[in-house]
Design a protein that fits this description.
The protein is built from six helices and six strands; from the N terminus they run H-E-H-H-H-E-E-E-H-E-E-H. By secondary structure, the chain is of the alpha+beta class.
Protein backbone atom coordinates (compact mmCIF):
# COMPACT_ATOMS: atom_id res chain seq x y z
CA UNK A 1 0.00 0.00 0.00
CA UNK A 2 1.21 3.50 -0.84
CA UNK A 3 2.29 5.75 2.03
CA UNK A 4 0.63 8.90 0.69
CA UNK A 5 -2.91 7.56 0.93
CA UNK A 6 -5.86 9.20 2.65
CA UNK A 7 -6.20 6.29 5.07
CA UNK A 8 -2.60 6.83 6.18
CA UNK A 9 -3.22 10.57 6.53
CA UNK A 10 -6.28 10.13 8.74
CA UNK A 11 -5.37 7.04 10.77
CA UNK A 12 -1.70 6.04 10.43
CA UNK A 13 -1.79 4.28 13.83
CA UNK A 14 -4.53 1.79 14.55
CA UNK A 15 -5.44 -1.01 16.91
CA UNK A 16 -7.40 -3.25 14.52
CA UNK A 17 -7.70 -3.46 10.75
CA UNK A 18 -9.14 -5.51 7.95
CA UNK A 19 -8.04 -5.47 4.29
CA UNK A 20 -9.45 -7.06 1.13
CA UNK A 21 -8.76 -6.57 -2.58
CA UNK A 22 -9.87 -7.71 -6.00
CA UNK A 23 -8.55 -7.21 -9.55
CA UNK A 24 -11.09 -5.91 -12.04
CA UNK A 25 -10.90 -6.00 -15.84
CA UNK A 26 -12.05 -2.42 -16.39
CA UNK A 27 -10.47 1.06 -16.42
CA UNK A 28 -9.94 2.85 -13.10
CA UNK A 29 -12.55 5.57 -13.89
CA UNK A 30 -15.23 2.94 -14.51
CA UNK A 31 -14.38 1.07 -11.31
CA UNK A 32 -14.42 4.31 -9.29
CA UNK A 33 -17.88 5.20 -10.63
CA UNK A 34 -19.27 1.71 -9.99
CA UNK A 35 -17.93 1.74 -6.42
CA UNK A 36 -19.54 5.14 -5.87
CA UNK A 37 -22.87 3.75 -7.14
CA UNK A 38 -22.51 0.46 -5.24
CA UNK A 39 -25.87 -1.22 -4.61
CA UNK A 40 -25.53 -3.43 -1.54
CA UNK A 41 -28.98 -4.96 -2.12
CA UNK A 42 -27.48 -6.98 -5.00
CA UNK A 43 -26.21 -9.37 -2.33
CA UNK A 44 -28.81 -11.28 -0.35
CA UNK A 45 -26.01 -12.21 2.07
CA UNK A 46 -25.27 -8.54 2.81
CA UNK A 47 -28.96 -7.74 3.24
CA UNK A 48 -29.39 -10.71 5.59
CA UNK A 49 -26.27 -9.86 7.64
CA UNK A 50 -27.40 -6.25 7.99
CA UNK A 51 -30.84 -7.34 9.18
CA UNK A 52 -29.54 -9.73 11.83
CA UNK A 53 -27.13 -7.05 13.12
CA UNK A 54 -29.93 -4.49 13.23
CA UNK A 55 -28.22 -2.25 10.67
CA UNK A 56 -30.28 0.03 8.42
CA UNK A 57 -31.54 -1.66 5.27
CA UNK A 58 -33.95 0.93 3.90
CA UNK A 59 -31.30 2.54 1.65
CA UNK A 60 -28.90 -0.14 0.47
CA UNK A 61 -26.84 1.99 -1.88
CA UNK A 62 -23.44 2.90 -0.46
CA UNK A 63 -24.19 6.61 0.01
CA UNK A 64 -27.48 5.89 1.79
CA UNK A 65 -25.90 3.28 4.04
CA UNK A 66 -23.05 5.64 4.99
CA UNK A 67 -25.54 8.38 5.88
CA UNK A 68 -27.91 6.06 7.77
CA UNK A 69 -25.04 4.63 9.86
CA UNK A 70 -23.78 8.09 10.84
CA UNK A 71 -20.50 7.75 8.97
CA UNK A 72 -18.89 10.89 7.56
CA UNK A 73 -17.27 11.22 4.13
CA UNK A 74 -13.82 12.53 5.14
CA UNK A 75 -12.01 13.02 1.84
CA UNK A 76 -11.81 11.76 -1.72
CA UNK A 77 -9.03 11.73 -4.29
CA UNK A 78 -10.82 10.64 -7.49
CA UNK A 79 -10.20 8.18 -9.03
CA UNK A 80 -7.69 6.82 -6.50
CA UNK A 81 -9.28 6.77 -3.07
CA UNK A 82 -12.42 7.55 -1.11
CA UNK A 83 -12.40 7.65 2.69
CA UNK A 84 -15.18 7.69 5.26
CA UNK A 85 -14.92 7.68 9.01
CA UNK A 86 -16.61 8.01 12.35
CA UNK A 87 -15.77 8.37 15.99
CA UNK A 88 -17.58 7.27 19.06
CA UNK A 89 -17.76 7.65 22.77
CA UNK A 90 -21.02 5.84 23.46
CA UNK A 91 -22.52 5.75 19.95
CA UNK A 92 -21.37 6.56 16.43
CA UNK A 93 -21.24 10.31 15.90
CA UNK A 94 -20.73 12.25 12.69
CA UNK A 95 -17.34 13.89 12.37
CA UNK A 96 -17.71 17.68 12.43
CA UNK A 97 -14.71 18.33 10.18
CA UNK A 98 -11.60 16.79 8.70
CA UNK A 99 -9.49 18.93 11.05
CA UNK A 100 -11.43 17.72 14.10
CA UNK A 101 -10.82 14.10 13.11
CA UNK A 102 -7.11 14.68 12.57
CA UNK A 103 -6.67 16.57 15.87
CA UNK A 104 -8.96 14.45 18.11
CA UNK A 105 -10.91 17.54 19.10
CA UNK A 106 -13.65 15.60 20.94
CA UNK A 107 -11.43 13.02 22.65
CA UNK A 108 -13.26 10.01 21.18
CA UNK A 109 -12.92 6.56 22.66
CA UNK A 110 -12.77 4.98 19.21
CA UNK A 111 -11.89 6.41 15.78
CA UNK A 112 -12.50 4.42 12.62
CA UNK A 113 -11.89 4.89 8.91
CA UNK A 114 -12.90 2.85 5.91
CA UNK A 115 -11.60 3.35 2.40
CA UNK A 116 -11.90 2.20 -1.14
CA UNK A 117 -8.59 2.48 -2.95
CA UNK A 118 -8.22 2.18 -6.72
CA UNK A 119 -4.90 1.32 -8.38
CA UNK A 120 -4.43 1.30 -12.14
CA UNK A 121 -2.64 -1.92 -13.09
CA UNK A 122 -2.94 -1.47 -16.85
CA UNK A 123 -5.09 0.32 -19.40
CA UNK A 124 -8.14 -1.78 -18.55
CA UNK A 125 -7.17 -3.43 -15.28
CA UNK A 126 -7.69 -2.01 -11.79
CA UNK A 127 -6.98 -3.24 -8.29
CA UNK A 128 -9.78 -2.27 -5.91
CA UNK A 129 -9.08 -2.62 -2.22
CA UNK A 130 -10.94 -1.76 0.91
CA UNK A 131 -9.48 -1.34 4.35
CA UNK A 132 -11.03 -0.63 7.70
CA UNK A 133 -8.90 0.70 10.54
CA UNK A 134 -9.99 1.19 14.13
CA UNK A 135 -8.03 3.07 16.77
CA UNK A 136 -9.02 2.45 20.36
CA UNK A 137 -8.05 5.78 21.90
CA UNK A 138 -9.13 4.94 25.44
CA UNK A 139 -7.31 1.94 26.91
CA UNK A 140 -10.46 0.26 28.26
CA UNK A 141 -11.93 0.21 24.74
CA UNK A 142 -9.14 -2.09 23.55
CA UNK A 143 -10.53 -4.86 25.72
CA UNK A 144 -14.19 -4.35 24.87
CA UNK A 145 -13.59 -3.72 21.17
CA UNK A 146 -11.34 -6.78 20.89
CA UNK A 147 -14.30 -8.99 21.88
CA UNK A 148 -16.61 -7.16 19.47
CA UNK A 149 -14.01 -7.41 16.65
CA UNK A 150 -13.53 -11.12 17.29
CA UNK A 151 -17.29 -11.67 16.91
CA UNK A 152 -17.94 -9.36 13.98
CA UNK A 153 -14.76 -9.62 11.86
CA UNK A 154 -15.72 -12.79 9.92
CA UNK A 155 -19.07 -11.26 8.92
CA UNK A 156 -17.49 -7.90 8.16
CA UNK A 157 -14.94 -9.65 5.95
CA UNK A 158 -17.67 -11.55 4.12
CA UNK A 159 -19.56 -8.29 3.55
CA UNK A 160 -16.45 -6.54 2.18
CA UNK A 161 -15.67 -9.43 -0.18
CA UNK A 162 -19.25 -9.40 -1.48
CA UNK A 163 -19.04 -5.63 -1.98
CA UNK A 164 -15.85 -6.00 -4.00
CA UNK A 165 -17.44 -8.72 -6.15
CA UNK A 166 -20.47 -6.49 -6.84
CA UNK A 167 -18.19 -3.65 -7.96
CA UNK A 168 -16.18 -6.09 -10.11
CA UNK A 169 -19.30 -7.45 -11.81
CA UNK A 170 -20.84 -3.99 -12.31
CA UNK A 171 -17.57 -2.52 -13.63
CA UNK A 172 -16.87 -5.35 -16.06
CA UNK A 173 -20.47 -5.33 -17.29
CA UNK A 174 -20.36 -1.55 -17.82
CA UNK A 175 -17.00 -1.75 -19.60
CA UNK A 176 -17.69 -4.73 -21.85
CA UNK A 177 -21.40 -4.12 -22.49
CA UNK A 178 -21.66 -0.34 -22.20
Amino acid sequence: MKKDTLINKFLPRYTFNEYHEIVIDAPIDTVYKMADDLDLSKSKTISWLFKIRGLPTNRMNLRGFIHDMGFTPLEANPPHERLIGFWTRVKIEPVASETDFLTDSISPWIKAVWNFQFEKLGQNKTRLSTETRVLCVASFTKVTFRLYWWLIKPFSGLTRKKMLRIVKEDSENAFFNG
